[in-house]
């Protein structure tokens, strides 16, 4: 059998599943090909193409996808139905006929709408009336403090009512008033004094009561007590250098004010101070109960009268009904003023201390405890002769004041006393103080926001923190001042109601 020469195997082309990149070809040489080196130039080069699935495979995949879609549709069918139902329920919103249609772009330049100017609030304008006095500010303040203390602690001092009433007349501080108050103070201090001091005080009281001592002699004995006791008696050396007959009852006022410090240390006065803690709640409770009772009483009168007006009828007389209603309303207002007057008086009777109030510009307001007297005549109140029946203000006239009652020989720039003796003027004064406080607060807020925007990372300095605390104190003082002025306005209304009866 003849042996034939073996023929070399033909080169085979293989396709592999790799990404197709244009411009790149690959040559694959099978290892099992003989004479590969000799026939390398005969190897077929082909561009790589992605594998293509056969028709049968595609049909199988499509059937499987169909089953998956059917299962997914079966699961999602209820949810789709609910979504379709919700869509159907939504009403179709139609464009309103009067809906504003946005204007088309135009090359015409239009003018800007006019900007509204902010409304500037005007400050209330109370009437600033200059009060002419023959005393210095210190002398007026001394008389105010002496009256307020004796009224507050008269349960300890035991001063007669007619003496207390005379304290309201600053220009009539006579001998009887001065000696009565001085002896009452000494007697109260003596109860808690040591035995040696008590003996000296008894001797002094006996001399004053036993014989008619001049005020010069009284000051001499008080100067001796100053050295022999621990009482807070001021040094009277300069007062004793003048002629004896020139010393009058006013010379005892500084001595009495000094003895107030000793009185505050006595058991009787300290027990009175404790009443504020225990009785203030009862005073407020009684006030609110009285107000509620009066409102209920007024409602029982007002409601039937309004029903009568609404019902009308042939027997209804509008003019007669109006007079009847106004009379009933005036009585209701008078009862409310009397209730507020009693509340202010009872509150002052247990207050721990009397303190003048100051506004943000430095003016001092003296709002007195209600008088024990019957309200004075309107003419005397208009002349500002009764200090306890008007608000006394010390300081300069405000720059924005427009209603001024001042003598022609007095300069507006000078400090002095100003009086507010009408209920309406006190209310205007309270509104003016509130307006100025709000104005200052807005200015401070704007300044602080500007400073914070200039330096956001900076922290508040100690001075700025102190300034914030001072601002809070001023706001609290303004609120107390406004409340006190409104209370005093009710006191003046009570006086008007009393004089009208």
Descriptive account of the structure:
With 501 residues, the protein is mainly alpha-helical. It has 13 helices and six strands. The protein has helices at 55-89, 137-152, 154-157, 161-166, 175-190, 195-210, 215-228, 253-263, 267-311, 318-349, 378-382, 423-454, 462-500, and strands at residues 128-131, 357-358, 364-366, 391-395, 404-405, 416-420. It has a six-stranded mixed β-sheet. A hairpin with a 5-residue loop joins strand 2 and strand 3. The longest helix is centred in the middle third of the chain and has 45 residues, at 267-311. The model is unreliable at 13-34, 36-51 and 94-99 (pLDDT under 50).
Report how far apart the termini are. Answer: 164 Å
Q: Specify the number of helices.
A: 13
User: Spans with pLDDT under 50 lasting ≥5 residues?
Assistant: 13-34, 36-51, 94-99
DSSP helix fraction: 40-55%
N-to-C SSE string, H for helix and E for strand: HEHHHHHHHHHEEHEEEHH
Note the topology.
Blueprint (H helix, E strand, L loop, with lengths): L54 H35 L38 E4 L5 H16 L1 H4 L3 H6 L8 H16 L4 H16 L4 H14 L24 H11 L3 H45 L6 H32 L7 E2 L5 E3 L11 H5 L8 E5 L8 E2 L10 E5 L2 H32 L7 H39 L1
Parallel strand pairs: 1-5
Antiparallel strand pairs: 1-6, 2-3, 3-4, 4-6
Helix pairs in contact: 2-8, 5-6, 5-8, 6-7, 9-10, 10-13, 12-13
